[in-house]
Write a structure and sequence with these properties.
- By secondary structure, the protein is mainly alpha-helical.
- The protein has three domains: 41 residues, no CATH class; 95 residues, Cytochrome c-like domain (Cytochrome Bc1 Complex, Chain D, domain 2); 53 residues, no CATH class.
- It is built from eight helices and four strands; from the N terminus they run E-E-H-H-H-H-E-H-H-E-H-H.
- A two-stranded antiparallel ribbon has the order 1-2. The protein has a two-stranded antiparallel ribbon with strand order 3-4.
- The longest helix has 23 residues.
- The protein is elongated, with a radius of gyration of 34 Å.
- The C terminus is likely disordered.
- The structure holds heme C.
- Heme C binds next to helix 4, helix 5 and helix 6.
Length: 235
Amino acid sequence: MAKIEDRILEHSYDGIREYDNPLPGWWLYLFILTIIWAFSYMYYYHVANIGPGQDVEYTQEMAKFQLAFEDIPADLAPLTDDASINEGSEIFKKNCLICHGPEGQGGVGPNMTDEYWIHGGRYEDMVRTTQNGVPEKGMISWKMMMPNDQILKVTSFLMTLRGTNPPNPKAPQGELYVEQEAEEAEVSEERISEETKAAAATDIIDTNSETGDIPAVDSLGADNLGTDNLDTDNK
Ligand code: HEC
């Protein structure tokens, strides 16, 4: 734009004269551009509804969030593939190491490599304790800070630390946890033999044969059985 000479305008207000100072071209074009932008924006989001509005975006974000943090089913098995374990190890280094020790040997938090657990030694206990934490004892609740896939990975990594015997372990805390498979296999063997006996006595298998299920011990009535095995249910 050619430079316009400042020129004084004709009119005068109570003797005050003013210059005609035109706006700089770049400023004027920018201004016009914002107006065009505003109309396009309005058309895009509010007239034609092409783009998602704030409320739609909010719902989408919340759905994503809920998916990432929804309840983890209790009967999950730990992940075992290398990629997940490696990622779990990284997550551990970043978030858990300061309290549980670089090799899980314990520090502020308990030892992850021994057979003693305060809050249970099953995989689902790892997941639950990690999610909910034990705030009064200094264990953080990670539920809202870590999406589920990360929780599953880091807890799966914890499972690999067992029996690794790192140097300077923290003294055991909690109760001795016996390997689940061994324990369960034993229990269910006992249980099946008890069940067969009980079923033979009461003919209960017939009444349940539609479902094809072996009747639950509890449904047989505790009188038929030694009650010793009844409370060992680990599910
Ligand atoms: C600020 C310190 C701190 C951090 C960080 C921390 N923990 Fe803990 N954690 C603890 C303490 C303290 C306990 C023991 C709680 C108790 O005594 O009941 C614990 C207990 C646990 C337990 C249960 C142990 C048992 O014996 O039952 C698990 C599992 C666990 N933490 C997992 C994790 C994971 C996974 C992370 C990282 C994502 C993590 N913790 C980060 C302090 C921490």
